[in-house]
Structures
1.
Amino acid sequence: MKKWLQLTAVALLCAFVFPYPASAVKIVVDAGHGGYDPGAIGVGGLQEKTVNLDISLKLRDELQRRGYMVAMTREDDRFIALPDRVSFTNGQNADLFVSVHANSYPNASMTGSMVLYYDDDYPQADYPASEAMRALSAVNRAFATQMLQSFLAGTGLGNKGIVPSAVHVVRMGTIPSVLVETAFLSNPAEAALLAIPEKRTSMALAIADGIEAFRPPIFPDLGQHWAQQAVMRLYALGYVQGANNLFYPNQPLTRAELVTMLGRVFAGTPGAVDTAIVPCATAQTPAAGSGVTAAVYGTGGKEPICNVPVFRDLAATHWAYDAMRQAAASGWLQGYPDGTIRPNAPVTREESAVLLDRLLQLAIPASGSAATGKLPFTDVAPTAWSASAIARLAAAGIVQGASNDKFAPQRQVTRAEMSVMLDRYVNAAKDAG
Ligand SMILES: [Zn+2]
């Protein structure tokens, strides 16, 4: 539910396209202690804050590689108060919270791993939990159980169980939260393990396994892809989708995909997709007194359109039939002279720029006048049909060259490239209010 509330306006506009809130899976990783708070001091002087940070940074890298978004409460050696860790987390719109610690106990023979979580079945009167966390008790328990199982499987360490706990960071937040006590710094053997970089790596991977088993990532094929963050932002807004939980970022974008993406991004733009389409029979011969007017279809005064160009090669059963018909009705998509639209054909960078520019001008009419900027690309002739569109988008910072001074207009645009362009537009539009 997280982004739903913030994005009510967007959600209302595209609810008919995308009736459920979607977002990338985001993890907050919290390296325990830091700065003047060293945490436990291990046998041999190893400080807990150092071990926690190293494992957390490795966990961050691994989660990103697997296609998660990650937010870190700290990425260096600094002190952060516990309430600040929670308020940071609450501001992240994240899905899960994992705090990384190492344990300590007066009896040096104590060994093993445990996972702490908040459980309302074991309340502590002096340490009341947030209402949200109380309600998450069962989820926390399931998350802790999975985390412990994965962590033990990945590290071979001893089982100290899951532990209902009132520690601040798992008690006061608003999302499922666990705290992993990796091993005991007070035990000589485990302190030695925690000092070995490879062992820390295996602990980080095991924590990632626990997260993945509990909440698989969306689009794991975007892990470490240069377009990952842009795609994730668009996905969170409901503008892009994948298939089979994969995004296929390097695949050429088809015309049907392009039109669908543009239709979603510009759903709130007057003239973009607000032309009502009605069956011709209804539009031409409304039954007497039936009151079939533009208002019925919510066109905001526009006449319903029935004679949308019907493309010879666009079957009514095509998944993008409605989006493409709508785009054609609204006037920003034309077919080929032979009456086709070739929905499954890849589009070029030039074509995608022209379509994006058309909608940009609808959304921000003033942008049309800024077309005079000199083309920064040597491979786009000033007389080319796409030249002014590319110039405008380049001036707005929405498109960049494929390399140095080349735009590569004839090259097929990939799903990743188009996502980055749209992401730049969405951010620019947001900045412009
Ligand atoms: Zn600690």
2.
Amino acid sequence: MRAVTYNEAFRITGAANTDPGVPAVTAEAGARWIEVYLAASANNRYVQGGGCTSVGAAGGFIQGGGYGSFSKRFGTGAGSVLEFEVVTSGGQMLIANAAQNTDLFWALRGGGGGTFGVVTKVTLRAHERPNTIGILRGTITAPDDDSFKTLIERFVAFYPQAVNNPSWGEQIAIRKDNSFEMFLTYLDLDEAAALAVWAPLTDGLPEGFVVDLAAKTHPFAGMWDLDYWKETDPGFVSIDQSPGGRPDLFWWALNQGEVTGFIDTYQSRWLPIDHFAPDNTDALTQVLFDASRHAHLRLQINKGLSGAPDDVLAREQETSVNPLVREAAAIVILTSRQAPRFPGVPGHEPDLAKGRKAAADIDAALAILRTATPGGGTYMNEADYFEPDWQQSFYGVHYDRLLAIKRRYDPTNLFKVHHGVGSEF
Ligand SMILES: Cc1cc2nc3c(=O)[nH]c(=O)nc-3n(C[C@H](O)[C@H](O)[C@H](O)COP(=O)(O)OP(=O)(O)OC[C@H]3O[C@@H](n4cnc5c(N)ncnc54)[C@H](O)[C@@H]3O)c2cc1C
């Protein structure tokens, strides 16, 4: 079930004949994002999927919300869904869209995978393609703890105006070793303009700081074009060399460690934008500094949707994605991974003592973030397996409505996944 088709004027099933339709891509349940991106790209369009090209387009990603590098411009994957084809636990094949089974349509756009039915096909809005994509990488290193705190303070004041907008995505790591490590994407800016955005943060830093940032802009048309990467930066991609695989497909080399990774822990928390308000910056600075003494904090700016365009936020409001994300400046992700490691294979076992120590450090860092964000939450697809109060944390104010829809479409509770809606019964 890997067919992917592009339609210049898709009309949802049941729409009036007068409806002009919108550009869209329909993907069967087995299609991966790279296949969907290629179909959209061949038609000069972009579909909002995930950063990692090997993740499935119709499954847990999109049903849990789903964020890619450009989500501050285009929103969640769920927000772009026009229609699902679903098989219910009773064996019925249904269409869920804005015209029919609207409650199921809402629930599938953010209420979590493996819960409401088996999605066999998804149709996604195909957006206007940006002209360019850029990557800004590098580090800012402070000479000591006090200077690092000053850097965080400057960053907290700088972030809302400079970076919390549709141009920027990906991540800034606030590191234990008193440095910021950036891997950021930017849309429709040339290299000088992209670097200029960061000048207010980096210019005038006192002696002892080391700033090493570089930007490179690419045509967006090259983004999913393997030949383009082979020519310009072959080390940036890994080609699918699996037996029976597709050598025309690829994933980012940066994701390679995930292929053989043993995850010690994976935790996260949304960082509300109001914490960056002038009255709150001192408190946020202290929180980020204190938490960073225990573990690296990765601020993924595309996984918080404050700063997104109004039309995107309006579309998001129609989904069941936890509304806390619309007030979030970023998500903070804290992880520890050993790679390559293969449990059960002598000589390649993960180091469990090291893993437990890393997990304890991350617990300590997250405890500080949790205390600072009471009533907060996080993104279910990239969260702690042991997340406390997960109904509130993942689904927030939507939980009761999601549970009622779950009971309507899956009355025997056949579909039950860890921390899915209704899994506690
Ligand atoms: C390498 C990697 C990179 C990632 N990058 C990102 C990223 O950039 N952005 C982001 O938002 N998330 C990212 N994630 C997290 C990702 O969103 C989740 O792992 C997600 O659950 C993957 O869904 P899946 O269907 O591919 O996986 P699975 O593990 O197969 O499924 C996850 C859940 O969805 C259910 N499910 C799967 N298919 C269906 C279906 N057709 N119908 C109904 N239920 C279904 C399953 O039962 C399961 O409960 C990444 C994950 C990995 C492993």
